Amino acid sequence: MKAFILDGYRKKAVLRLGEMPEPKVRDRDVLVAIRAAALNPLDAKIRDGEFKLILPNRFPLILGHDLAGVVVRTGSSVQGFKPGDEVFARPRDGRIGAFAGLIAMDEADVALKPRSLSWEEAASIPLVGLTAWQVLVERANLKQGQKVLIHAGSGGVGSFAIQLAKYLGASVATTTSTANVDMLKSLGADVVIDYTKADFSELLSGYDVVFNSLDQATLEKSLKVLKPGGRLFSISGPPDVAFAKSIGAHWFLRQVMRLLSRGIRSKARRRGIDYSFVFMHADGKQLKKISALLESGAIRPVVDRVFPFAALNEAMDYLETGRARGKVVIAMD
Asked: Keyword annotations for this protein (predicted)?
Protein backbone atom coordinates (compact mmCIF):
# COMPACT_ATOMS: atom_id res chain seq x y z
CA MET A 1 0.00 0.00 0.00
CA LYS A 2 1.02 3.62 -0.48
CA ALA A 3 2.15 5.41 2.66
CA PHE A 4 4.20 8.36 3.86
CA ILE A 5 7.10 6.91 5.83
CA LEU A 6 9.33 8.27 8.59
CA ASP A 7 12.68 6.44 8.64
CA GLY A 8 14.01 7.95 11.88
CA TYR A 9 13.62 10.86 14.28
CA ARG A 10 14.81 14.09 12.71
CA LYS A 11 13.58 17.65 13.16
CA LYS A 12 11.59 18.87 10.15
CA ALA A 13 12.20 15.57 8.37
CA VAL A 14 10.45 15.14 5.01
CA LEU A 15 8.21 12.08 5.01
CA ARG A 16 8.99 9.60 2.23
CA LEU A 17 6.22 8.40 -0.06
CA GLY A 18 6.66 4.68 -0.65
CA GLU A 19 5.22 1.20 -0.38
CA MET A 20 4.49 -0.55 2.91
CA PRO A 21 3.03 -4.00 3.58
CA GLU A 22 -0.70 -4.22 4.21
CA PRO A 23 -1.32 -4.15 7.99
CA LYS A 24 -1.88 -7.47 9.75
CA VAL A 25 -5.39 -7.86 11.14
CA ARG A 26 -5.58 -9.20 14.70
CA ASP A 27 -8.62 -10.93 16.17
CA ARG A 28 -10.10 -7.70 17.57
CA ASP A 29 -9.07 -5.50 14.64
CA VAL A 30 -10.91 -3.74 11.86
CA LEU A 31 -9.02 -3.06 8.63
CA VAL A 32 -10.04 0.33 7.24
CA ALA A 33 -9.49 1.84 3.81
CA ILE A 34 -8.71 5.46 4.64
CA ARG A 35 -10.65 8.16 2.81
CA ALA A 36 -9.29 11.18 4.73
CA ALA A 37 -6.79 11.81 7.51
CA ALA A 38 -6.07 14.86 9.66
CA LEU A 39 -2.76 16.32 10.76
CA ASN A 40 -1.95 17.26 14.34
CA PRO A 41 0.99 18.98 16.05
CA LEU A 42 1.56 15.62 17.73
CA ASP A 43 2.66 14.18 14.38
CA ALA A 44 5.38 16.81 14.06
CA LYS A 45 6.50 16.32 17.65
CA ILE A 46 6.84 12.57 17.19
CA ARG A 47 8.72 13.11 13.91
CA ASP A 48 11.12 15.47 15.69
CA GLY A 49 11.75 12.96 18.50
CA GLU A 50 10.15 15.03 21.27
CA PHE A 51 8.17 12.06 22.63
CA LYS A 52 10.65 9.25 22.08
CA LEU A 53 11.03 8.60 25.83
CA ILE A 54 7.30 8.16 26.46
CA LEU A 55 6.13 6.99 23.02
CA PRO A 56 8.83 4.67 21.68
CA ASN A 57 8.33 3.72 18.04
CA ARG A 58 9.81 1.30 15.57
CA PHE A 59 10.96 2.40 12.14
CA PRO A 60 9.94 2.65 9.40
CA LEU A 61 6.98 4.47 10.98
CA ILE A 62 3.75 5.75 9.48
CA LEU A 63 2.45 8.82 11.30
CA GLY A 64 -1.16 9.98 11.47
CA HIS A 65 -3.56 10.01 14.44
CA ASP A 66 -6.94 10.91 12.85
CA LEU A 67 -8.86 9.20 10.08
CA ALA A 68 -12.18 8.40 8.46
CA GLY A 69 -12.75 5.51 6.12
CA VAL A 70 -14.52 2.26 5.23
CA VAL A 71 -14.14 -1.10 6.97
CA VAL A 72 -12.88 -3.67 4.45
CA ARG A 73 -12.16 -6.61 6.76
CA THR A 74 -12.64 -7.59 10.40
CA GLY A 75 -10.84 -9.90 12.79
CA SER A 76 -12.42 -13.12 14.02
CA SER A 77 -13.52 -11.64 17.38
CA VAL A 78 -14.97 -8.35 16.11
CA GLN A 79 -18.67 -7.91 16.84
CA GLY A 80 -19.32 -4.19 16.54
CA PHE A 81 -18.37 -3.57 12.90
CA LYS A 82 -18.70 -5.21 9.50
CA PRO A 83 -17.23 -4.64 6.03
CA GLY A 84 -18.78 -1.58 4.43
CA ASP A 85 -19.23 0.37 7.67
CA GLU A 86 -18.16 4.01 7.47
CA VAL A 87 -16.06 4.80 10.54
CA PHE A 88 -13.75 7.36 12.12
CA ALA A 89 -11.09 6.90 14.77
CA ARG A 90 -8.03 7.97 16.67
CA PRO A 91 -5.95 4.75 16.76
CA ARG A 92 -4.21 4.05 20.04
CA ASP A 93 -0.54 4.88 20.61
CA GLY A 94 1.68 2.19 19.18
CA ARG A 95 -0.78 1.56 16.33
CA ILE A 96 -0.98 4.93 14.59
CA GLY A 97 -0.59 5.15 10.81
CA ALA A 98 -3.30 7.24 9.16
CA PHE A 99 -0.99 8.62 6.46
CA ALA A 100 -1.50 5.52 4.35
CA GLY A 101 -4.08 3.69 2.26
CA LEU A 102 -5.02 1.17 4.96
CA ILE A 103 -4.86 0.88 8.74
CA ALA A 104 -5.69 -1.92 11.18
CA MET A 105 -7.11 -0.79 14.54
CA ASP A 106 -8.58 -2.35 17.65
CA GLU A 107 -12.36 -2.09 17.35
CA ALA A 108 -12.44 -0.44 20.81
CA ASP A 109 -10.85 2.66 19.26
CA VAL A 110 -13.37 3.03 16.44
CA ALA A 111 -16.85 4.56 16.07
CA LEU A 112 -19.32 4.86 13.23
CA LYS A 113 -18.77 8.02 11.22
CA PRO A 114 -21.40 10.75 11.71
CA ARG A 115 -23.59 10.48 8.62
CA SER A 116 -23.97 14.25 8.28
CA LEU A 117 -20.22 14.85 7.92
CA SER A 118 -17.99 14.57 4.88
CA TRP A 119 -14.95 12.30 5.02
CA GLU A 120 -12.71 15.31 5.57
CA GLU A 121 -14.89 16.74 8.33
CA ALA A 122 -15.11 13.38 10.10
CA ALA A 123 -11.34 12.85 9.91
CA SER A 124 -10.79 16.23 11.57
CA ILE A 125 -12.58 15.24 14.78
CA PRO A 126 -11.21 12.22 16.71
CA LEU A 127 -8.01 13.49 18.35
CA VAL A 128 -9.24 16.99 19.14
CA GLY A 129 -12.69 15.78 20.14
CA LEU A 130 -11.33 13.15 22.50
CA THR A 131 -8.79 15.59 23.94
CA ALA A 132 -11.48 18.16 24.73
CA TRP A 133 -13.83 15.49 26.09
CA GLN A 134 -11.19 13.97 28.36
CA VAL A 135 -10.22 17.37 29.78
CA LEU A 136 -13.63 19.00 30.15
CA VAL A 137 -15.90 16.01 30.81
CA GLU A 138 -13.74 13.19 32.14
CA ARG A 139 -11.26 15.19 34.20
CA ALA A 140 -12.78 18.61 34.94
CA ASN A 141 -16.39 17.42 35.17
CA LEU A 142 -17.35 20.85 33.85
CA LYS A 143 -20.81 21.91 34.96
CA GLN A 144 -23.41 24.45 33.95
CA GLY A 145 -22.59 27.94 35.20
CA GLN A 146 -18.88 27.33 35.70
CA LYS A 147 -16.27 29.52 34.04
CA VAL A 148 -13.57 28.05 31.80
CA LEU A 149 -10.65 29.67 29.96
CA ILE A 150 -9.61 27.81 26.81
CA HIS A 151 -6.33 29.01 25.34
CA ALA A 152 -5.61 29.06 21.58
CA GLY A 153 -9.27 28.97 20.67
CA SER A 154 -8.73 29.01 16.91
CA GLY A 155 -6.68 25.80 16.89
CA GLY A 156 -8.06 22.32 16.35
CA VAL A 157 -8.43 21.48 20.04
CA GLY A 158 -9.53 24.96 21.06
CA SER A 159 -12.25 25.33 18.42
CA PHE A 160 -13.78 22.01 19.49
CA ALA A 161 -13.36 22.65 23.22
CA ILE A 162 -15.17 26.01 23.04
CA GLN A 163 -18.21 24.35 21.51
CA LEU A 164 -18.15 21.44 23.96
CA ALA A 165 -17.87 23.77 26.96
CA LYS A 166 -20.83 25.82 25.72
CA TYR A 167 -22.85 22.64 25.22
CA LEU A 168 -22.08 21.75 28.85
CA GLY A 169 -23.46 25.13 29.95
CA ALA A 170 -20.21 26.83 30.94
CA SER A 171 -19.21 30.45 30.43
CA VAL A 172 -16.25 30.39 28.03
CA ALA A 173 -13.32 32.76 27.62
CA THR A 174 -10.62 32.18 25.04
CA THR A 175 -7.46 33.74 23.64
CA THR A 176 -6.56 34.26 20.00
CA SER A 177 -5.13 36.76 17.51
CA THR A 178 -7.05 39.63 15.94
CA ALA A 179 -7.95 37.75 12.74
CA ASN A 180 -9.83 35.02 14.62
CA VAL A 181 -11.92 37.02 17.10
CA ASP A 182 -15.15 36.94 15.09
CA MET A 183 -14.80 33.23 14.29
CA LEU A 184 -14.50 32.30 17.97
CA LYS A 185 -17.52 34.42 18.87
CA SER A 186 -19.46 32.50 16.23
CA LEU A 187 -18.44 29.24 17.94
CA GLY A 188 -19.99 30.48 21.17
CA ALA A 189 -17.13 32.03 23.16
CA ASP A 190 -18.48 34.58 25.64
CA VAL A 191 -15.19 36.44 26.09
CA VAL A 192 -12.55 36.57 23.34
CA ILE A 193 -9.22 38.15 24.28
CA ASP A 194 -6.93 39.30 21.50
CA TYR A 195 -3.51 38.46 22.92
CA THR A 196 -1.86 41.00 20.60
CA LYS A 197 -3.73 43.78 22.43
CA ALA A 198 -4.33 42.58 25.99
CA ASP A 199 -3.02 40.28 28.71
CA PHE A 200 -5.65 37.70 29.66
CA SER A 201 -4.26 37.40 33.19
CA GLU A 202 -5.04 41.07 33.82
CA LEU A 203 -8.62 40.81 32.57
CA LEU A 204 -9.93 37.51 33.93
CA SER A 205 -10.44 36.23 37.47
CA GLY A 206 -12.50 33.75 39.43
CA TYR A 207 -12.36 30.96 36.86
CA ASP A 208 -13.05 27.32 37.72
CA VAL A 209 -11.01 25.69 34.94
CA VAL A 210 -8.19 26.63 32.57
CA PHE A 211 -7.41 24.45 29.54
CA ASN A 212 -3.87 25.22 28.36
CA SER A 213 -2.18 24.17 25.12
CA LEU A 214 0.48 26.87 24.97
CA ASP A 215 3.89 27.55 26.51
CA GLN A 216 5.20 27.57 30.09
CA ALA A 217 4.76 31.32 30.48
CA THR A 218 1.08 31.11 29.55
CA LEU A 219 0.65 28.14 31.89
CA GLU A 220 2.05 30.04 34.86
CA LYS A 221 0.07 33.22 34.12
CA SER A 222 -3.08 31.10 33.97
CA LEU A 223 -2.79 30.50 37.71
CA LYS A 224 -3.77 34.13 38.26
CA VAL A 225 -7.21 33.73 36.69
CA LEU A 226 -8.23 30.67 38.71
CA LYS A 227 -10.08 30.84 41.99
CA PRO A 228 -8.90 28.77 44.99
CA GLY A 229 -9.94 25.19 44.30
CA GLY A 230 -9.70 25.80 40.56
CA ARG A 231 -8.16 23.32 38.18
CA LEU A 232 -5.42 23.87 35.61
CA PHE A 233 -5.11 21.33 32.78
CA SER A 234 -2.33 21.36 30.20
CA ILE A 235 -1.88 19.23 27.09
CA SER A 236 1.47 20.84 26.28
CA GLY A 237 3.26 19.94 29.49
CA PRO A 238 5.08 19.65 31.66
CA PRO A 239 4.12 16.00 32.28
CA ASP A 240 3.55 15.11 35.92
CA VAL A 241 3.99 12.03 38.11
CA ALA A 242 0.38 10.94 37.73
CA PHE A 243 0.87 10.78 33.98
CA ALA A 244 4.13 8.86 34.41
CA LYS A 245 2.32 6.26 36.51
CA SER A 246 -0.54 6.02 34.01
CA ILE A 247 1.82 4.98 31.22
CA GLY A 248 3.79 2.59 33.44
CA ALA A 249 6.97 4.66 33.25
CA HIS A 250 10.03 3.24 35.00
CA TRP A 251 11.37 4.81 38.17
CA PHE A 252 13.93 7.08 36.49
CA LEU A 253 11.41 8.55 34.04
CA ARG A 254 8.97 9.14 36.91
CA GLN A 255 11.63 11.18 38.70
CA VAL A 256 12.35 13.17 35.54
CA MET A 257 8.67 14.06 35.20
CA ARG A 258 8.47 14.90 38.88
CA LEU A 259 11.31 17.40 38.43
CA LEU A 260 9.90 18.82 35.19
CA SER A 261 6.55 19.59 36.81
CA ARG A 262 7.77 20.56 40.27
CA GLY A 263 7.76 24.30 39.55
CA ILE A 264 4.19 24.58 38.27
CA ARG A 265 2.88 22.10 40.86
CA SER A 266 4.42 24.14 43.68
CA LYS A 267 3.06 27.44 42.36
CA ALA A 268 -0.37 25.90 41.90
CA ARG A 269 -0.37 24.36 45.38
CA ARG A 270 0.41 27.73 46.98
CA ARG A 271 -2.71 29.15 45.35
CA GLY A 272 -4.90 26.17 46.26
CA ILE A 273 -5.08 25.07 42.63
CA ASP A 274 -4.79 21.55 41.19
CA TYR A 275 -2.45 21.08 38.19
CA SER A 276 -2.76 18.12 35.80
CA PHE A 277 -1.03 17.15 32.57
CA VAL A 278 -3.37 15.42 30.10
CA PHE A 279 -2.27 13.15 27.26
CA MET A 280 -5.37 11.92 25.49
CA HIS A 281 -6.10 8.23 24.92
CA ALA A 282 -8.07 6.44 22.22
CA ASP A 283 -11.66 5.61 23.19
CA GLY A 284 -14.32 4.50 20.74
CA LYS A 285 -17.13 4.76 23.32
CA GLN A 286 -16.35 8.42 23.96
CA LEU A 287 -16.06 8.99 20.22
CA LYS A 288 -19.57 7.58 19.82
CA LYS A 289 -20.88 10.19 22.29
CA ILE A 290 -19.02 12.91 20.40
CA SER A 291 -20.57 11.64 17.16
CA ALA A 292 -24.04 12.18 18.61
CA LEU A 293 -23.18 15.83 19.36
CA LEU A 294 -21.97 16.29 15.80
CA GLU A 295 -25.10 14.69 14.35
CA SER A 296 -27.30 16.95 16.46
CA GLY A 297 -25.47 20.08 15.32
CA ALA A 298 -24.39 20.98 18.86
CA ILE A 299 -20.79 20.95 17.62
CA ARG A 300 -19.55 21.55 14.10
CA PRO A 301 -16.19 20.66 12.57
CA VAL A 302 -13.74 23.45 11.83
CA VAL A 303 -11.56 22.56 8.85
CA ASP A 304 -9.06 25.11 7.59
CA ARG A 305 -7.61 23.45 4.46
CA VAL A 306 -7.79 20.12 2.66
CA PHE A 307 -4.71 18.90 0.79
CA PRO A 308 -4.43 15.94 -1.58
CA PHE A 309 -2.66 12.89 -0.16
CA ALA A 310 0.40 13.47 -2.37
CA ALA A 311 0.87 16.92 -0.80
CA LEU A 312 1.21 15.63 2.78
CA ASN A 313 4.59 17.27 3.36
CA GLU A 314 3.19 20.58 2.13
CA ALA A 315 0.29 20.13 4.55
CA MET A 316 2.75 19.47 7.41
CA ASP A 317 4.61 22.67 6.56
CA TYR A 318 1.36 24.62 6.60
CA LEU A 319 0.31 23.15 9.93
CA GLU A 320 3.62 24.18 11.47
CA THR A 321 3.14 27.83 10.52
CA GLY A 322 0.64 27.94 13.40
CA ARG A 323 -1.83 29.89 11.28
CA ALA A 324 -4.39 27.15 10.69
CA ARG A 325 -7.92 27.84 11.91
CA GLY A 326 -9.19 24.47 13.04
CA LYS A 327 -7.82 21.35 11.39
CA VAL A 328 -5.64 20.59 8.36
CA VAL A 329 -6.77 17.48 6.48
CA ILE A 330 -5.53 15.29 3.63
CA ALA A 331 -7.96 13.58 1.25
CA MET A 332 -7.12 10.26 -0.36
CA ASP A 333 -7.28 9.89 -4.12
From this structure: Oxidoreductase
